[in-house]
Amino acid sequence: MMNGHKTEPAPPPPPPPPSATPRQLTEAKVMAEENGRQGEPCVRSKTGGTLTKGNVVVLTLRLLCMATSVTAMSFMVTARQVSAASFYGFQLQLHSKWSFSYSFEYLVGVTATATAYSLLQLLIAGSRLLVKKSPVIPSRNQAWLVFAGDQILAYAMMSAGSAASGVANLNRTGIRHTALPNFCKSLDSFCDHVTVSIAFTFFSCVMYAAAAVQDVIWLSTH
């Protein structure tokens, strides 16, 4: 009390506004956890592309298809040998080369086509994944085209391997009821190259069939 007048106490200062920092931190934490859960099935590459499990499977199958096709073609085009064989007491000069048989030429043509196709698919997939940052298979139309190509090459590989197997078996066993010898006894290196080439041709057929199955799985889930 001063000079007979009663003084009222000063009102308390207003409380400070609640800080937005805890709320912002909470929201940022929730968003980080959600982004972490969404990004668990993906692997970030050094270039910034996203490698999903499906993309890894597709790229692996493409690499296997190209590797088996190149191996089959390489062994066939190097199948050549010069040797001698005894026929009714006469020594005959034998000169064998893959280009002497239409079936072997067909196998080389099919494997060369498959190699070029697989290389093209790898280049397209790599450019989409690393440069454009897009999925390896961007649309259903693209998936149908790839599926058709894989199916055609799988059947072509099967037919090429089957045709070459008939000629290779004839070289090894001869012709029934005739005196033709087993030419593979004298042309062992040639026959071995042909056998390995045919084996990888059938293996490549299996790889293209697996790629076609992977295409069907993608189409069924997208």
TrEMBL record:
Q: How does it sit in the membrane?
A: Multi-pass membrane protein
One family name in Pfam for this protein:
CASP_dom
Q: Where are the transmembrane segments?
A: 56-77, 106-131, 196-219
Residues forming coiled coils: none
Record's keyword terms, sorted? Cell membrane, Glycoprotein, Membrane, Transmembrane, Transmembrane helix
Q: What is its main location?
A: membrane
Superkingdom of origin = Eukaryota
Query: Ranges for the Casparian strip membrane protein domain?
Result: 53-206
Q: What cellular component terms from Gene Ontology apply here? A: plasma membrane
Question: Region (Disordered): which ranges?
Answer: 1-26
Q: Where is this protein found?
A: Cell membrane
What segments bear the compositional bias annotation Pro residues?
Answer: 9-20
Per UniProt, subunit arrangement is: Homodimer and heterodimers.
Q: Which NCBIfam families match?
A: A_tha_TIGR01569 (TIGR01569)
PANTHER family noted in UniProt: CASP-LIKE PROTEIN 3A1, CASP-LIKE PROTEIN 4A4
Tell me the protein family, please: Belongs to the Casparian strip membrane proteins (CASP) family.
Its protein name is CASP-like protein
